[in-house]
Specification:
By secondary structure, the chain is mainly beta. Helices cover about 0% and strands about 50% of the residues.
Length: about 120
């Protein structure tokens, strides 16, 4: 089965930056959108950013102006540049891919991000 691999998380101080990467182990047909969810400790999972096959982007209000999502040159690859990180950004970040034709979602196992001094 296809596996999405998210990486790039770690421990950073407030105001620091991280770049998350996500790539599929095998090619996924007809991907309509890719992006990132996150789940802070003790809170519900929330959408952070997404990008469609046409290049349209969407961001949570809490990260606008600080995070940037982009597609990579390789197929089924997406990045999330995170700047000016805040303690409230601490969460496990999950990469996803959506295929509308079949109503299918692919998920990575998550990469943890901790923002603390």
């Amino acid at each position: 089965q296809v596996q999405l691999v998210g990486s790039g998380g770690g421990l950073v101080q407030p105001g620091g930056s991280l770049r998350l990467s996500c790539a599929a182990s095998r090619s996924i047909s007809s991907i309509n959108a890719m992006g990132w969810f996150r789940q802070p400790p003790g809170k519900a999972r929330e959408l952070v950013a997404s990008i469609t096959d046409g290049g349209s982007t969407d961001y949570a209000d809490s990260v606008k102006g600080r995070f940037t999502i982009s597609k990579g040159n390789a197929k089924d690859t997406v990045y999330l540049q995170m700047n000016s990180l805040k303690p409230e950004d601490t969460a496990v970040y999950y990469c996803y891919a959506h295929v509308t034709m079949y109503g299918m979602d692919y998920w990575g196992k998550g990469t943890p991000v901790t923002v603390s001094s």
